[in-house]
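Hi everyone, sorry if this is the wrong subforum. Our group has a chain we'd like a structural model of before ordering constructs, and none of us has done structure prediction before. Sequence below.
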Amino acid sequence: MHKDNTVKKIAEYKDKSLLIVDDDNPFRDRLARAMEKKGFIVTQAESVKKGIKNVQLIKPAFAVIDLRLTDGNGLEVVKEIQNLNINSRIIMLTGYGNISTAVAAIKQGAIDYLAKPADADDVEKALLADPKEKAQPPENPMSADRVKWEHIHRVFELCNRNVSETARRLKMHRRTLQRILSKRSPK
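Answer:
Right subforum, don't worry. Here is the predicted structure as tokens:
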């Protein structure tokens, strides 16, 4: 494996402030500890409201924001960051990766989009990568089976966990869908 020259070190940045907004408390805490060990000065928030309040207080140079939060959409936090600090480097995280949300995140000012669970190394690479260079592929991308499973579960949640409606929208047999939903997620 070759060393990627397009990634700067956090020590090269004057402002090391990082805001992590995610409503998954254990994940957010783990990521915050890992990013602090890497040299970032981390602030955490678990909601859109608290995220926006932190943005107004610290105007972070870096941000990692979950797309779906309990009280709204993480893109609201991205908009606030862009209004206050246009040079912020923002990464969107989500367990429901799809093209339309990725496009919306980039249009709002995010520099990259990572699927959960993303590890601290992937987040650091994305935050510090040269925006003019093509991004490196992830070390451990989700398998095609996992992507399919995530999509099915996302549609299921959007249909308020209604199996018949989900099956109709996915154009699959209801029993096939029930078998998929009863299984654990693939690796």
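For your construct planning: Residues 24 and 46 are 7 Å apart (CA to CA). The chain has a mean pLDDT of 83.
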